[in-house]
Protein: M14 family metallocarboxypeptidase
Amino acid sequence: MTKSVQRIYSIGTVGTPWGAAERALWLSQQPVKRSYQAEVLAPLQQLLTAPALAACAELQCYGTLDYSSHQLGTYPLYAVKNRHFDSNKPLLLVTGGVHGYETSGVQGALLFIREHFAHYAAQANVLVLPCISPWGYETINRWNPDAVDPNRSFVAGGPSQEANAVLALLGQFPTPLVHIDLHETTDSDNSEFRPAKAARDGTVNTNWNIPDGFYLVGDTAKPQPEFQRVMIAAVSKITHVAEADDTGCLIGEALQQFGVVNYPKKSLGLCGGMTDAVYVTTTEVYPDSPRATPAQCNQAQVAVICAGFDYALAATGSVL
Structure:
């Protein structure tokens, strides 16, 4: 059940949207807590030196985030793709780290590349963007330095450098058959990010119950219930799946089936709605559960990717 909890954020005046001063104050309070170079780029580059991956995969730098106006420097953005693109095969897309604080979205994508990229690259064209928001990863943040949520910005000419770089990259590729977007729902959604959003926008904060367990968010316009069911079945072997609350909802949305809710992704500017992929889902891992380890969270992300890819390839007759 949704809880109406007014938590007054430390920045701004209740009922008044932030201006430049408030955004600058917020940014000044976001220290670097971990390294994009050490935890993402270095492992990614090392992975691609392995003979099996080097034979089928390559890195593509698809842009550079320039936050020098905030005295933050620049961040190179990388994707992993098939070394040899075959236009007769479908495209399978994985995105991670749209919200940089959602750790298993990034680390799960890297684990998938390490353990499974070569297998699927033999059957299809595979494109993985493991960390779309590197500053958010370093500062464990939902927003970018402009206090913009990249995952509400996947529209042409939107306000997020991160989203715009991804959209430009995908313009070079055909429409994916599958798009799996890796996320987490964390306790900090209620303790930090929702109150911060309400303060930024000058609105009233309404917290939701954080589901204890894994769930998926399908697309209202193309729910693909069997696709979602297969992925939930796969992940339930790794970690527990969230139960609906006493109103039959997860994060305020009506349960469609066990572990699955739907959002209108395109109209909300979500990463999961940025393509016309037939099969789309957004993962939501709960890393704060005492019943789930970081390794399980990463493995749950991988289980969803593999189950989703297997289902879509079989359904379209694309399996070798």
